[in-house]
Amino acid sequence: MKEIMKYSGCFVCGEKNSCGLKARFFYDDDRAVTEVIADDIYEGYRGIFHGGILSTLLDEVMIKAILAKDIYAVTAEFTVKFVKPVRTGDKIRLVGKILNQRGRLFFTEGLAFDEKGELYAEASGKYFEARPELKEILVQSID
């Protein structure tokens, strides 16, 4: 497995972001993967991991599947279907992959599982490959 490039200040993957998730993403068999522990500092309700943070992780794992191919992209839209709540302290395994591409538009899928392989949430996303002028800005962020 190869670690996917990152920006050290990123909320999701940056190791220098003091309030961030510090998730490490790897590329394995055409998929981006990561595992995180649902820390209680990201609670929505007592003992329940915030759905917005889970959505953020799903967005990131989908875009990392594109970035792993050395393609810089930005989120156009994504939707999340929540299946069951994530309890704080739970380990979450996230998987993202590219389903299709039409020109500069990538269609992706993201899945979040518990340790038993049961689904917490699923997402679908659309991401635009950055045009050269935006790509220049994005590349400057990468460590």
Protein described:
The chain is α+β, with helices and mostly antiparallel strands and 143 residues long. It has a single domain (2-139), classed as Hotdog Thioesterase (Thiol Ester Dehydrase, Chain A, Roll). Helices cover 17% and strands 41% of the residues. It has helices spanning 51-67, 132-139; strands at 2-3, 26-28, 31-37, 43-45, 48-49, 73-82, 91-102, 105-113, 119-129. The strands form 2 sheets. It has a 7-stranded antiparallel sheet, covered by helices on one side. The chain has a two-stranded antiparallel sheet with strand order 4-5. A hairpin with a 2-residue loop joins strand 4 and strand 5. The longest helix has 17 residues, at 51-67. It is globular, with a radius of gyration of 15 Å. The protein starts with a strand and ends with a helix.
CATH class: Alpha Beta
Name the strands of the widest sheet in spatial order. 1-2-3-7-8-9-6
CATH topology: Thiol Ester Dehydrase, Chain A
Q: End-to-end distance, in Å?
A: 19 Å
Instruction: List the total number of helices.
Output: 2
Largest sheet: 7 strands, antiparallel
Q: CATH homologous superfamily - what is it?
A: Hotdog Thioesterase
